Amino acid sequence: MIHNKNTTLGFNHYLFLWFGAAVSIAEILTGGLLAPLGFQTGVAAIVLGHIVGTIILIAGGIIGTDERIPAIVSTRISFGQYGSYIFSILNVLQLVGWTAVMILAASRSANEISKVLWGFDQQSLWSLILGGLVLLWIALGRDSGLKKANMAAVFLLFGITLVLSQVVFKDTSLLSAPAQGGMSFGEALELSVIMPLSWLPLIADYTRFAKDKKSAALGSGIGYFVGSCWMYIIGLGAAIAADNPEPSAMMLAANLGLAALGIVVLATLTTTFLDAYSAGVSFANIFPKLNEKRVALIMTIIGTLTALFVDIEQYENFLIALGSVFAPLFAILLTEYFIIKNRRLRPELLVNWRALAVWLLGIYLYYQFMDIQFILGATIPVFVITSLLYRSIWVYTKEWSYCLNNK
Questions:
Q1: Which 3-state string (H, E, C) describes the chain?
Q2: Most exposed among 95, 193, 247, 374, judged by the fewest C-beta atoms under 10 Å?
């Protein structure tokens, strides 16, 4: 176990941190993808998917609190040191991707607002402005001032979710909107599970600083579940009512004017900060002498530049790719930690080839379940199958890992 004396974060910190992370334009847009199911079935998929995803997310956070280690470092328990390097690289790529997606989505909203207010149409410039503000947010670090600023931002974001909800749901007829077809329940369920799942490689980066396990688990779980479900439902309702889940349109409809720009900026900062910071933490798993904050700044710059060229229309494929990688990965880690109860970081373990083989099989199964549009999506069956398979072969393979001989 790696001890860290800076265990200062309590329930409120995690509640605000993860609610702020959930209140994002990307989550609203994802909720809008579920519109073909109709409102009631869409909400059912959102809630069920988030229950499953948030439970898994909390479990990953518990490892961070118990062992006082970042999320990617915890993968060494099952996969070994070199195995964790693979996931560090994959996580850095997904976090840079998220940084780009968040900045791209926010810059598009900010540009729509500025066009209406001032006739200013410069989306690329907005991407650079938002990326620069994220850089400043990271530069402030984890000091007490940033904690207070984050809490203030979350209170403001909470207020705007109320306003957006009023705009979207003033017409109660959408609550009974029928399904239009074009999306299976399993696909919608998967898009709901994926969002909390995408935070799995990050959550322990923050829960390792918790005062205690209960406050971190409850604060993170409640904050993220409530915030993310809320954003999804707002996006779902907007897509059904106006065929447009774009947050800028909702805020302009609410006559928020200049305040709408501030809302876009706050939502981008509270979420993208987590992505960029954890990219630095993951990179430091491979190169521990590097400064996490400096790496996070570099990752933000890369993500910002990427936002200038990527296509937001590929967003759904990006989410599916994340689910395919992280569902079997954390099925193996959580099985090892909570069921097999192997909780030791072994410096001599370089790579567990059998764990990697089961993980690759899990990725293959994930896409098979997506292809057949299984009613429970892909994460749930893949998680169960991967866990059972790894548990059943563990007793035969635990000594097959490639290790350095102790001297």
A1: CCCCCCCCECHHHHHHHHHHHHCCHHHHHHHHCCHHHCHHHHHHHHHHHHHHHHHHHHHHHHHHHHHCCCHHHHCHHHHHHHHHHHHHHHHHHHHHHHHHHHHHHHHHHHHHHHHHHHCCCCHHHHHHHHHHHHHHHHHHCCCHHHHHHHHHHHHHHHHHHHHHHHHHHCCHHHHHCCCCCCCCHHHHHHHHHHHHHHCHHHHHHHHCCECCHHHHHHHHHHHHHHHHHHHHHHHHHHHHHHCCCCHHHHHHHCCCCHHHHHHHHHHHHHHHHHHHHHHHHHHHHHCCCCCHHHHHHHHHHHHHHHHCCCCHHHHHHHHHHHHHHHHHHHHHHHHHHHHCCCCCCCCCEEECHHHHHHHHHHHHHHHHHHHHCCCCCCHHHHHHHHHHHHHHHHHHHCCCCEECCCC
A2: 374
